[in-house]
């Protein structure tokens, strides 16, 4: 009886381990939007790296700041040189966890709470945000929309454009994570 219990526990451990997977993407999307009084500014980055460990809930994003594309080339130049200083701070990163229970092995749409550290412009801030995961046989599609305050990340707005750029920026995340090949 004792041997049967041990064998059952070992089998269960291997089964649980094999169901836990890591999901990744190298072409996620992040958009930011500034709705300033004089001008609306939007930029999109389609080269977002992201990974999710379904066993632990660990979730990470890494973004190359120079990969944001703007409607106007001058906006893109100012963003990289004057605001986020992309040469000095080339990436932004989120490292955290899904904090609520999600049944990643079952197809469905799940509201998620994500908590962790967001680093932009060399400044790390602890954040808590909500999002959605849609789990299917094709992978996990994740979306979220939240706001950040530029001042929290030591990003200053020069006086000449104070009215053009909002002090709070809307961030939209849209990633489709695929199972990592073993």
Walk me through this protein's architecture.
With 182 residues, this protein is α+β, with helices and mostly antiparallel strands. It has one domain (22-179): Lipid/polyisoprenoid-binding, YceI-like (Lipocalin, Beta Barrel), CATH 2.40.128.110. It is built from 2 helices and 9 strands, in the order αββββαβββββ. The chain has helices spanning 2-19, 73-83; strands spanning 22-35, 40-53, 58-64, 69-70, 91-98, 108-120, 123-136, 139-149, 168-179. The chain has an 8-stranded antiparallel β-barrel. It is elongated, with a radius of gyration of 20 Å. The relative contact order is 0.19.
Question: Can you identify the CATH class?
Answer: Mainly Beta
Strand content: over 45%
* Termini separation: 35 Å
Shape: elongated
β-strand number: 9
Helical content stands at 10-25%
Largest sheet: 8 strands, antiparallel, barrel
- Going by CATH, the architecture would be Beta Barrel
